[in-house]
């Protein structure tokens, strides 16, 4: 029995599109026959703005890309600038950076967990997820005074050293969070409605995922153990013990489980960082790397000139952000401003795989599959 196909718009104003995203669905009754993803509703010209700012002035703009996980965005850009200029970073600053990024990875996955379950009709998990997220945001607030957009990681190191009492507070958070992840699994994983909505839904094979350029948990949910922290180690990651989490099924449930496991691995990394943090040499809030009262170099910031002109050249630097591979291509012409900035954002690259994942399914299945891709529209449109 054939029916006339219907063109249906889902979004751009829709709670389950996580911002302003539009799906143009061609429906055959309740079945999705075709899907077009329409982006650009949140475009702010961030790359072009970066070419109009100095290297230091652009750091706060990177916070606004993936605003759920701003620390890795800060670091990815700063790492590119440091590679371009040959800046060496103090060891303690690298420890603090990894601490910030892994704590932000936990925050990202908590928001993913809560928003996914809310999209599927469960209102309680988002309250639990945001309860733990609030504790992590209080740590960030203690560290740099901000909760979501930090401007904390700077070329040469970090803006300020850890405040007194930070590590004990972090240890309290880790001890509590380890129990909470177990609670989430006990609450969610055996729920038959959740399993029906997630298992064998939004399946994408490893080959397809690689061809689409997917990265991060969305790719590792298809069994591909691709993690830049292991393949191209940076910062102090070569010295840390952690495993790359992956599941072979390639469905929505596998992508969810990768993030559950990654929260545990991030807590494991945080514990190693907290236990092995190098001592500080000079407490200072002076951002250019020299303590004004003593002249002693700071243990968290290399010298960074007020007027910074890196040598002409180009660099592409990438990291393993919570959503996948985040890369910055920066071209210098020897002036105080970048000649060109191009951002390779994980949300954008992962999103293009959605049409192939949901053809033949129904609209509620699109909600589940899209939720497990974990997209932030500021990261998509840039």
Q: Would you kindly provide a written description of the structure presented here, covering whatever features stand out?
A:
- By secondary structure, the protein is an alpha+beta fold.
- It has one domain (6-381): Cytochrome-c3 Hydrogenase, chain B (Orthogonal Bundle), CATH 1.10.645.
- Helix content is 45%, strand content 13%.
- The chain contains 15 helices and ten strands.
- The strands form four sheets. It has a three-stranded antiparallel sheet with strand order 1-4-5. The chain has a three-stranded antiparallel sheet with strand order 8-9-10.
- Strand 2 and strand 3 (19-20) form a beta hairpin.
- Helix 4 runs antiparallel to helix 5 (124-144), helix 4 (91-119) packs antiparallel against helix 14 and helix 6 packs antiparallel against helix 11 (252-275).
- The longest helix is centred in the first third of the chain and has 29 residues, at 91-119.
- The protein is globular, with a radius of gyration of 21 Å.
Mean pLDDT: 90
CATH topology: Cytochrome-c3 Hydrogenase, chain B
CATH architecture: Orthogonal Bundle
The number of distinct structural domains comes to 1
Elements, N to C (H/E): EEEEEHHHHHEEHHHHHHEEEHHHH
**Based on CA inertia axes, which overall geometry fits?**
globular
- Separation, N- and C-terminal Cα atoms: 45 Å
| Helix proportion range | 40-55%
The largest beta-sheet arranges its strands as 1-4-5
* Poorly predicted parts: 282-295
The major beta sheet can be summarized as: 3 strands, antiparallel
What is the CA-atom radius of gyration, in angstroms? 21 Å
Count the E strands. Answer: 10
What CATH first level would be assigned?
Mainly Alpha
